[in-house]
User: Which sequence fits this backbone?
């Protein structure tokens, strides 16, 4: 194998941890194993989800808007500024995303009947259909991912991950948004 190809292969977790320990002797290998495995799993899952939504003709950024509108509950409507805040985007980035999605028929953007200054973004039937299909694809992927774990193991893993998530959320309450826009 050419040397350039060898360098592009990610080291195994054991190799990574051994290299870290060589350079930083205070490293706790158990902690590093958990954190590195979570990081790699998250990255690979994001790639898999990105491929799935791409098959549906939407981007990860568009998926985030569809998901946020669905999470808001029926009738799946929100103001652009509320969407931007929930997604950690600037108003300009949100406007650009909404423009693109409205052009694709995934959302509509109309004036609020009760306040003509306010704009309302609403999920269309097409947008909801894309969201549902993405959820079907994700469910299949996720069930396959967890197939080797028993129901009890899944429950324990879920509880442990939620404990870790709560610790990070408590320590970094402002970290829910993005550092940079996805567009």
Assistant:
């Amino acid at each position: 194998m050419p040397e350039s190809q060898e360098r592009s292969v990610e080291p195994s977790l054991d190799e990574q941890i051994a290299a870290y320990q060589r350079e930083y002797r205070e490293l706790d290998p158990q902690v590093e194993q958990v954190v590195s495995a979570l990081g790699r799993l998250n990255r690979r899952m994001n790639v898999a989800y990105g491929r799935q939504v791409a098959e549906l003709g939407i981007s990860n950024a568009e998926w985030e808007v569809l998901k946020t509108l669905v999470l808001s509950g029926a009738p799946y409507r929100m103001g652009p500024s509320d969407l931007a805040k929930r997604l950690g985007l600037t108003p300009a980035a949100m406007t650009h995303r909404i423009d693109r999605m409205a052009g694709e028929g995934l959302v509509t953007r109309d004036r609020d009947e009760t306040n003509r200054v306010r704009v309302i973004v609403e999920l269309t039937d097409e947008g909801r259909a894309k969201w549902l299909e993405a959820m079907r694809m994700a469910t299949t992927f996720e069930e396959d991912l967890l197939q080797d774990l028993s129901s009890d193991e899944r429950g324990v893993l879920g509880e442990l991950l939620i404990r870790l998530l709560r610790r990070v959320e408590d320590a970094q309450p402002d970290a829910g948004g993005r550092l940079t826009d996805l567009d």
Remarks:
- Residues 4 and 10 are 12 Å apart (CA to CA).
- The longest strand covers residues 107-111.
- The chain has a mean pLDDT of 90.
- Residues 29-55 form the longest helix (27 residues).
